[in-house]
Amino acid sequence: MNFFYRAFLNVKGKKGRTILLILVLSAILLFVLAGIIIQNAATTAVNNAKKSSGATVTLSANRSNAFKKLRQQKSKNPTLSLASVSVKTAKKIGNSDYVKAYNITNSTSVNAKSFDAIKTSSSSQSNQMSGPGGKSSSSSSSQGDISLSGVTSTSQVSSFTSGTSKIKSGRGINASDAGTNNVVIETELAKQNSISVGDTITVKDTDKNIHKFKVVGIYKSSSTSSQTGGMGQTDPSNTIYSSYALVNSIKGTTSAESVTYTISNPSKAAAFITAAKKSINTSKLSLTKDDSTYRSLLTPLNNVKSFAQKIVILVSVAGTIILTLIVVLMIRERRYEIGVLLSLGEKRWKVIAQFFAEMVMIMVVSIAVAGAGGKFVGDAVGKQLVNQTTTTTSTTTNTTTGNSQNGQPGGGGAQMANNGGGGQQQSTQASSQQLQKLSTSISVVSLVQLGAFGLAIILLAILIGSIGILRLQPKKILIS
Amino acid sequence: MLKTKNVAYWYDKKEHKLFDNVNLEFKEGKLYAIIGSSGSGKTTFLSLLGGLDKPRAGTIEFQGVPLSKIGLTNYRNHDVSMVFQSYNLFPYMSALENILTAMAITKAEHVHDKDYVFEVLEKIGINKEMAKKKVGRLSGGQQQRVAIARTMCCDAKLVVADEPTGNLDEQNTFEVLDLFKAVAHEQNKCVIIVTHESMVAQRCDQQIELKNNEFLIK
Fold first, then answer.
1. Of the residues A237, A271, A290, which one is the last residue of a structural domain?
2. pLDDT digits (tens, 9 = 90+) for A339-364
3. Complex ipTM value
4. Which of A33, A82, A94, A430 is the most exposed place for a label (fewest CB within 10 A)?
């Protein structure tokens, strides 16, 4: 290990050169570290995204099969027959370990009796907004003017999770509301009819049965969509949320239109579907995976990760080139010293090992310098990258949202339209939050990675730079 | 101890030989001087004796074994020690560190023994304080003494020196020559000096002159 001692003496003896080399190597390692920490942060964020975003699987009628059967009907007026999901089956599947939560959804339309529904000018019906207390002109219609959306919990409805709808007073619907006539109404509908939390409202179903609802909460919907849903209602404010059981009791059924399962780990969605298919008749019901939130998070994070990877590669290559040139110059300057060592009978690999040991000693100090500065560079570069990527993602997602305003394919009714509209917004919001959380902290792992990169850079530089040593003849150096 | 058998050397063309058919023998305990005019090839001959190069023809034997068998790196490492006109010291090390480093490379008997090195240095006029200074801060004469001390501390039986007094004044020249004599006579080593100064050569035990491509023993 004599070469190690010589290396130490050289590093100690040539302070000026040592400091310069520390500065050069620190600059190289600083950028390598910045790349590594951004890369690690992006990897962590991807993993977090996997955990936090989750994927949803919707159990609903198998529409494609239903349409196939429709086409096979030979009658003059074929009718589309959509299967519904038994609540018992929905609950059984919901007990799976893959499922974090599930939401049974059902909807029907009713007519406002003790209050007036909100009408829009685009409504096909001639009368405009009715005054408070007045009778609704559409009360006799077979399609009600109020959409009653039955859910397990409003907190799991996508418009609420995305923030499009918010509870303003009272509370939302939850699992304990099953078997009650509790409802949550929209703030505009409440204002229009001077309804407040605790009031009772009455509606008339299509069979002209009167139902009394107790208002337990008022929500505010910021949705601007006023497109006509399948039930004929005209404004999103006419949507009333209740327990799915209440809708079932009005409809006189024990099944649901669809059930949305939130999967704890998006990568397990396929496994869940396979397991769930065993409990259903797949010719009548289908399971649809929606991991768009996860995928929308993945794209920008993968972009950041890929860019960071490029930084690491580029800086490493540039660093190796710079360091190789420095080593070549250093070796030329130290030809005489090499000649003396060779004249003393020192082996060539030990001369090269001495240079390597010198650079390793310098690298240890440089890693400390880079470690101190890498956090700031990583933060700055990471922030810039995140800003750039978030902007790009927002632009892309807004375009997508615009295209999907008409609701999810296969969805019907106001609730499905809400889900469809909110899905992408939720993705964008979650994506943005996830990206803002990109933590560029220096860990022991990133320092070890930096050390490995540093060693590789130095090794390459020394090996390339030392080719000359292998060709050096001590006689030529010493005698000339 | 060291024998050259029909040694010949040329650079580019075989017809332009620096020397040919050289048969010389160098014994331990003696100080030899190889003299000759500039460009005569004496330094090249010394580089062959020091194992820095191979002869184009003939063989060199150390203690009866051809250098090709010993291996030049091995030979330089264990059997020969060199002193040059420009001292050949590591500028970033002290005199003590220079000697300890050489001793470590050659795996000398007293490796890591600082007291032994101080003792040798003291004998040649370098005290402890000077021994701890970077060699660049020592005078030319002092640096050459350190280079000689290095050969004394290493266990090599053969010492070759190329113009070791070339950069020294008269007084330092004589002092350095005395040191070489001591190395040869007291340590029973074979010391071969290459010089162009007849004054230096005259103080050695034997003079060998390289003239017109031939070595003449005086």
1. A290
2. 888 888 888 899 999 999 999 999 99
3. 0.84
4. A82
